[in-house]
Amino acid sequence: MSAHAALGVVKSGVATLKGTGVRINCISPGQIDVGVSLKDFDMRGMNSQLPPSSLQSAETQRQVIGLERAGLPTEVARVAGFLASGFSSYVTGANLVVDGGASVMNPLTVPI
Fold first, then answer.
1. Which long-range contacts (CB under 8 A, 24 or more apart) does 11-18 make?
2. Alpha helices, DSSP H only, in the chain?
3. Phi and psi at residue 5, in whole multiples of 5°?
4. pTM for the structure as a whole
5. What is the number of alpha carbons within 13 Å of residue 100 lying toward its C-beta?
6. How far apart are CA 5 and CA 108, in angstroms?
7. How far is residue 85 from each of residues 25, 89, 112, measured CA to CA in Å?
8. Checking CA distances to 75, which of 38, 65, 82, 84 falls within 20 to 30 Å?
9. pLDDT digits over 34-88, tens only?
């Protein structure tokens, strides 16, 4: 599913689930370091906007990410935990961007 499709499901889901008490939200992670080396991976035919974090130099990450590093899976998991908790009881229809500020540094790389 593309990012825009996921956001569309969230937006239409709010109206569909109105009155049921069910909340629907979306998490849009940025570059997350999952610990997999892609150094010898064949990237031909891939048209992603930014390469995976493991293929970026530290200097590139400092330039394009506000926090100057790739995120960690646990940092995205904490956002998911927040959405699953009672602390987010009035949050629905939201797109939480967890990208370390990369969308602010490069606004054309984030789904709207």
1. 11/93, 13/93, 14/92, 14/93
2. 3-16, 58-64, 73-84, 102-105
3. -65, -40
4. 0.77
5. 19
6. 17
7. 13, 7, 26
8. 38
9. 777 666 766 666 655 555 655 567 787 788 888 988 899 999 999 999 999 999 9
